[in-house]
TrEMBL record:
Pfam families: Cyt_bd_oxida_II (PF02322). PANTHER family: CYTOCHROME BD-I UBIQUINOL OXIDASE SUBUNIT 2 (PTHR43141:SF5), CYTOCHROME BD2 SUBUNIT II (PTHR43141). Coiled coil: none annotated. Belongs to the cytochrome ubiquinol oxidase subunit 2 family. It is a multi-pass membrane protein. GO terms for cellular component: cytochrome complex; plasma membrane. GO terms for molecular function: electron transfer activity; metal ion binding; oxidoreductase activity, acting on diphenols and related substances as donors, oxygen as acceptor. The keyword Calcium does not apply. The chain crosses the membrane at residues 6-35, 81-99, 119-139, 159-180, 192-213, 219-240, 247-270, 297-320. The keyword Transport applies. It is found in: Cell membrane. It comes from the Bacteria. This is Cytochrome d ubiquinol oxidase subunit II.
């Protein structure tokens, strides 16, 4: 297997891992004002992702670094052409991270409510925009002979991309609800399970339309198999949630997101950023790649450090595996204003 193929797969795996892990983070943040009826419940919801959310973001940092080193032309065209969308995602992630740290620093109810709103915005915006970005990558954008994006921000907000954003937002929210069913106890856990069932049913329609649109316009035989499996996993998640098997429902939505992401990258292959203005100006795994020497050095470095990172993150999830109960949250000191 050629090194360009290996690193295309590596970038796809990193993005897929990010969507699965950060997906439930975004889901928890998006559901914060829905499930959290009072300050103690909202604090319990935040505590479920408190030990892991920043570690989950390492996946997208690594994915961006791998793209920059392995496919520099892809990185340059993507980050310049999609600048406003990616900047909005970055800004939302910064606001979200600050909100996690500063929410408990004030003693007034208004202070905490304002930071809760920041957590919600910082979760909903990336959850929607990542789907928009991925859809545009698969669909392609207008590029000139220098691989520069020649369109506008409005060209990125096309129907297919917006449907992709709605799909990821609803799937991540469902994923987050199932995660909360696993990580909380008592009434809060049951409310999360019931909400997950409703969200999963709501996500099924746009997800199905988006995946069929993807297959019809850009798909291959492999992507078709992955899309069928993704749809079956989503249906299985709904059935498992209905029967009260929260752990398996969470695994099913993780599988749904993973298979759907893999299907998008298979539909993209062997391109990395097609050109809609002139196919000859499109980027593929060959003309976007770095030199073989660079790819070789990166491969050896990944073989050494990747297992260490995976073991560390797995250990983190094991240490913080216990459920969070509202009963364990002390009464807050916040006053009314």
């Amino acid at each position: 297997m050629e090194l360009t193929t290996i690193w295309f797969i590596a970038v796809a795996v990193l993005f897929t891992g990010y969507f699965i892990l950060e997906g439930f983070d975004f889901g928890v943040g998006a559901l914060l004002p829905v499930l959290g009826r009072d300050d103690r419940e909202r604090r319990a919801l935040i505590n479920t992702i408190g030990p892991v959310w920043d570690g989950n973001e390492v996946w997208i940092i690594t994915a961006g670094g791998a793209m920059f080193a392995a496919f520099p032309h892809w990185y340059a065209s993507l980050f310049s052409g999609f600048y406003l969308l990616l900047f909005a995602i970055l800004l939302a992630l910064i606001v979200r991270g600050v909100a996690f740290e500063y929410r408990g620093k004030g003693e007034t109810a208004r202070w905490r409510r304002n930071w809760d709103r920041c957590i919600w915005v910082g979760s909903v915006v990336p959850a929607f925009l990542w789907g928009t970005v991925m859809a545009n990558i698969v669909r392609g954008v207008p590029l000139d002979e220098n691989f520069d994006y020649t369109g506008s921000i409005w060209g990125l907000l096309n129907g297919y991309a917006l449907l992709g954003g709605l799909t990821t937002l609803l799937l991540f929210a469902t994923h987050g609800a199932y995660f909360l069913h696993l990580k909380t106890a008592g009434e809060l856990s049951e409310r999360a399970r019931a909400l997950g069932l409703r969200l999963g049913a709501a996500a099924a329609v746009p997800a199905l339309v988006f995946l069929i649109w993807t297959q019809a316009s850009f798909g291959s035989g492999v992507s078709l198999v992955l899309i069928v499996l993704a749809v079956l996993a989503l249906v299985a998640g709904l059935a498992l949630d209905f029967t009260g098997r929260g752990g398996w429902a969470f695994a099913a939505t993780a599988l749904t997101i993973g298979l759907a992401s893999a299907a998008l990258f298979c539909a993209l292959w062997p391109d990395v950023l097609p050109s809609t203005s002139d196919p000859a100006n499109g980027l593929n795994r060959e003309n976007a790649a770095a030199t073989d020497k660079t790819l070789g050095i990166m491969t050896w470095a990944a073989l050494v450090f990747l297992p260490i990172v995976l073991l560390y993150q797995g250990w983190t999830y094991w240490v913080f595996r216990r459920r969070v109960s509202v009963d364990h949250i002390p009464a807050g000191k916040a006053v009314a204003s």
